Amino acid sequence: MSNASSILTPRKLTPLLPALQVTVLVLMGRRWWCKCGQFFLWAGATGSHNSQHLADAYTGSHLQHGFLFYWLAHKFFPKRCWWWRLNAALALEIAWEIWENTPFIIDRYRQDTVSLDYVGDSIFNSLGDVLACALGFCAAGSFPIALSLLVYLGIELTMLLTIRDSLTLNVIMLVAPVEQIKAWQHQA
């Protein structure tokens, strides 16, 4: 291995990705933490604390991202090392976290989803989402495929039953909103 190629190995790149994420979010003017100033590890699905603390009712969907990214990386990049595939997953998740905090997506959530009071993620919540994705990625790589699918579907079902939202509904409502889904979600 040449000196140039050993300087930045996939493993050494991993901590730089969240550092880049934080830098971009700071430059975008995102808050570090909830404006209330209180420290909660968990906040519910609605209200001013949503997406402002480390984890919330949507953390499960970020675990699901990790499962999906693992399956895709395993399928399309089977010869790449584990660290390379993890970094690809983290890069995708971080790209989403940055895009999710743009005025376009924030307004889209407010307009077309149940998240009427959504103000974007705090930086710590965004980091928590990336951590959840990484945990989902690791779990998908550790579990047999059948168990991985059960966990993925279990998260989806749990979110539907508890907050009337899920990764699937989130995608539908962002891409092609369905008024009946929105009405059902507002009945909660």
Largest sheet: 2 strands, parallel
- Name the shape in a single word: globular
- The N- to C-terminal Cα distance equals 58 Å
The fraction of residues assigned to DSSP E strands is: under 5%
**Average of pLDDT:** 92
Structural class: mainly alpha
Number of strands: 2
Number of domains: 1
Which regions have little confidence, pLDDT < 50, spanning 5+ residues? none
Count of runs of 4 or more consecutive helical residues? 10
Approximately how much helix is present in the residues?
Answer: 55-70%
Summarize the helix and strand pattern as letters: HHHEEHHHHHHH
Rg of Cα set: 17 Å
Strand order of the largest sheet: 1-2
Pick out its properties.
single chain; 188 residues; mainly alpha; two-stranded parallel sheet; 10 helices; 2 strands; globular
Question: Would you kindly provide a written description of the structure presented here, covering whatever features stand out?
Answer:
The chain has one domain (50-186). The model has no long low-confidence stretch (mean pLDDT 92). The chain has 10 helices and 2 strands, in the order αααββααααααα. The protein has helices spanning 3-7, 10-13, 16-27, 59-76, 82-100, 103-112, 123-142, 145-163, 167-175, 179-186; strands spanning 42-43, 55-56. The N and C termini lie far apart (58 Å). 66% of the residues lie in helices and 2% in strands. The chain is an all-alpha fold and 188 residues long. The protein has a two-stranded parallel sheet with strand order 1-2. The longest helix has 20 residues, at 123-142. Helix 4 crosses helix 5.
